[in-house]
């Protein structure tokens, strides 16, 4: 049986985030905040 990995997606306006770069992310919409919180609870970043 094949394993499928899933991830969370947070669309950002006027911002491009590249690997290895750390930027502050401001999330205001409830769905965006929920994605950010769910990401913080996972061990995979």
Care to describe what's here?
This protein is an all-alpha fold and 45 residues long. Helices cover 24% and strands 0% of the residues. The protein is built from one helix and no strands. It has one helix at 30-40. The longest helix has 11 residues, at 30-40. It is extended, with a radius of gyration of 13 Å. It starts with 29 loop residues before the first helix and ends in a 5-residue tail after the last helix. The model has no long low-confidence stretch (mean pLDDT 80).
Strand and helix layout:
Blueprint: H1 30-40
Notable characteristics:
45 residues, 24% helix, single chain, mainly alpha, 0% strand
SSE run: H
Low-confidence stretches: none
Alpha-beta classification:
mainly alpha
How many helices? The count is 1
Number of strands: 0
Bin the strand percentage.
under 5%
Rounded mean pLDDT is 80
> What is the helix content?
10-25%
Mind describing the biggest β-sheet? none
Output the radius of gyration: 13 Å
Concise synopsis of the structure shown:
The protein has 45 residues and is mostly helical.
């Amino acid at each position: 049986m094949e394993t499928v990995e899933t991830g969370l997606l947070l669309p950002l306006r006027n911002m491009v985030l590249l690997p290895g770069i750390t930027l502050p992310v401001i999330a205001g919409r409830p769905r965006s905040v929920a994605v950010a919180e769910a990401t913080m609870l996972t061990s995979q970043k």
